[in-house]
Amino acid sequence: MAPDGHAVDPNDLLRRSADRQVSFRIPAALDQRLDALLERAITAGENTTRRELLSALVLAADQTGDELSRLLREYRTARVTQALLDQVTDGNVIELRRHKPGPRAVR
Fold first, then answer.
1. What pLDDT shows up at residue 103?
2. Which of 16, 57, 14, 15 lies closest to 34, judged by CA?
3. Where are the domains of the chain?
4. Among the residues of the chain, which ranges form H helices?
5. Nearest-angstrom CA–CA distance, 10 and 63
């Protein structure tokens, strides 16, 4: 085990296992997409959070190098409009919502 690691029971529920603070930046349009996906999950009856949704998406990701490579290339060439789920583009400017730091209230 790595010096900074810790032991976990492999049979524990993943959502209840020890966690780590992850800090990274994503494009604002993807942040808005995450909110839209969360809203869809809540509308479908899920009582969930951005953290849980993002964790589920990471867990579901294909594990092959070829597929990950394809996804990276797709991301690198994607346009802002491809990230937006619930917003109609009008003209050549898109207004994205701004959020204060910290947990977001469920709508």
1. 65
2. 57
3. 26-83
4. 28-43, 50-60, 65-77, 80-83
5. 19
**Burial (CB count within 10 angstroms: exposed 0-12, middle 13-18, buried 19+), residue 83:** buried
pLDDT, one tens digit per residue, over 35-88 is 999 999 999 999 999 999 999 999 999 889 999 999 999 999 999 989 988 766
Contacts of 14 (CB under 8 A, 6+ apart): 55, 59
- DSSP character for 53? H
The amino acid present at 103, given as its one-letter code, is P
| Residue with tokens 């809540």, as numbered in its chain | 42
Token readout for 84 is 């937006």
